[in-house]
Amino acid sequence: MHPIWNQPPTQADVVIIGGGLVGVCLAYQLARRGVNCCLLEKNTLASGASGRNDGQIILETADYYTRMQQVYGKDEALKILRFKRAGQQGTHQLLSEGPTEGPLAYHQQGSLTLAYNEAEAKLIESASTAMIRDGFAMELLDCGQIEAKIHTRRFSMGKHDPYDASVNPAEMTRLIAAEARRHGAAVYENMAVTDVSSGQVHYEGGTINCEVAILATNAYTADLLPEFDNMVFPIRGQVMATAPSDIEIPPYACITNFGYDYWHWTPEGRLILGGRRFIDEHGETGTAHRVNPKVQDALGALFHEIYPQYDHLEVAQRWSGIMGFSKDGKPLIGMIGGDPTLWCAVGFTGYGLGMCWSAGEAVAQVLNDEESELTAILPIFSPNRFS
Predict the structure, then answer these.
(1) How many helices (H) and strands (E) does the chain have?
(2) DSSP 314
(3) N or C: which end of the chain has fewer CB within 10 A?
(4) 29-39, pLDDT tens digit by residue?
(5) pLDDT of 245-299, one tens digit each?
(6) 313 CB-contact burial (10 Å; exposed 0-12 / middle 13-18 / buried 19+)
(7) The whole model's pTM is what?
(8) How many domains does the structure of the chain reveal?
(9) Would 307 be classed as within a structural domain?
(10) Are 229 and 221 in contact (CB under 8 A)?
(11) Contacting residues for 307 by C-beta, under 8 A, at least 6 apart
């Protein structure tokens, strides 16, 4: 039982379950519209994947734009990228111009998508041509230009998107939660939800009556709603970080090998490197946070492959995070079934950091009876597409 001064209210307009980036963005967007909202997190803010990824806010997904056009159709692929870009712009405005309290390692240096082999080079070139044609700014780079930016000659070519960014995702989560509180949201940590029903959220020690409950639980959604067991799948990602150094490489968000490998350098001279999941793809499933030695060894080999001149750097920390992958690569955002009191924003397939802002704003707009480009796009993410 929680002490009375830590007890959530018995009534709220909206209850958000999950204190990761999507959850706190929902709380912020609702609270700044004057909605009486309450967020419940079973552990601490950013204790899940939101605080355990490598911190990239990027536009494109592992499926390059031309591949997205083939799978979803040209119109839907364009809407997905516009949805993400709008979120990047909103995130940038808050993080660069908004609150100044507390530290935040946020850098809009841009991203580098780098060709691991010739097949990927062709995809990068064709996707870039299509994206530029559809109004997204980026430029192609050759090996020498890449080396000048990030000190490696491993890649023959790549592209630079100037609007992408890198960030400390745990700091970002806590900062947006603080902004949500400042606008009136109630945020509770160590408050495990045990059941969700129409108009009620039950947690250990009490119940909140509400107009709407929103699950922002990503990989853990099936723990509360078993029907999500075949819609959102928990996938583990591995990350390593070197000790600080005197190496000065700008904090570009770097991606290669069809989205499987990713890294950035911090201003302290740390390399944050993640990926190599394909080394043990079947073993990297489930919700247990564990370091996988096979994948971590492969990350070490990748570090040597990209930066042989820096492999004297000591690896200071290794960790993992659990992502929620959807069946078709698109998140599930919207009303669940025909129940207007039950919503979700889950299944971001490793790209929640780039979509959390627009997901939160679009849901808040719908619940506040607003219309925008985001609300017009939202139906393509409907959870009911799998019904």
Answers:
(1) 9, 19
(2) P
(3) N
(4) 999 999 999 99
(5) 999 999 999 999 999 999 999 999 999 999 999 999 999 999 999 999 999 999 9
(6) middle
(7) 0.96
(8) 2
(9) yes
(10) no
(11) 151, 152, 271
